[in-house]
Amino acid sequence: MSDCIFCSIVAGEIPSSTLYEDEHVLAFLDITQVTKGHSLVVPKKHSRNLLEMDEQASSALFAKIPAIAQQLKEKLGASGVNLLSNMEASAGQTVFHTHVHLLPRFDDQDGLHISFDAKEPDFPALAQLADQLRMETV
Ligand code: 5GP
Ligand code: ZN
């Protein structure tokens, strides 16, 4: 049994409500069901979070996300879907095996409130920050 709960789920050592599986990814229901159909999509190969994944590994994971989200939405009759991936504890990560949350949405009836505290745009500050952060390569 692995120390990592999602590695144990991938290995079939812990039961999960599997929705989809292939060579690279596993999708299963999150036990807490923040909204109906709340699912997790994980790479089968362990990594801590997206911050340590390379292009090849993350491509294999994200290649399947649209189709999984589309099918969740259709099968549940949902009106939308949120995608979330917490990276490190300060961002709310509690399980340190990369995972993407898919949260089906049901108009105003699902009790989930995600809101950004919007501030007035400061264009000189934005330009300065972009200068600091501009990337030659990724
Ligand atoms: P995080 O907070 O790291 O972004 O999300 C971890 C998620 O894993 C949580 O939403 C939690 O409900 C889910 N989770 C934790 N343990 C298990 C488990 O044993 N089985 C399933 N299906 N989900 C789990
Ligand atoms: Zn793991």
From TrEMBL:
Record keywords: Hydrolase
Superkingdom classification of source: Bacteria
Chain location of the short sequence motif Histidine triad motif per the record: 97-101
GO molecular function: hydrolase activity
Domain HIT: 5-113
GO biological process, one term: nucleotide metabolic process
Protein source organism: Streptococcus acidominimus
InterPro entries: HINT, Histidine_triad_CS, Histidine_triad_HIT, HIT-like, HIT-like_sf
Gene3D superfamilies reported for this sequence: HIT-like
Pfam families for the chain: HIT
Protein name: Diadenosine tetraphosphate (Ap4A) hydrolase and other HIT family hydrolases
Active site: 99 (tele-amp-histidine intermediate)
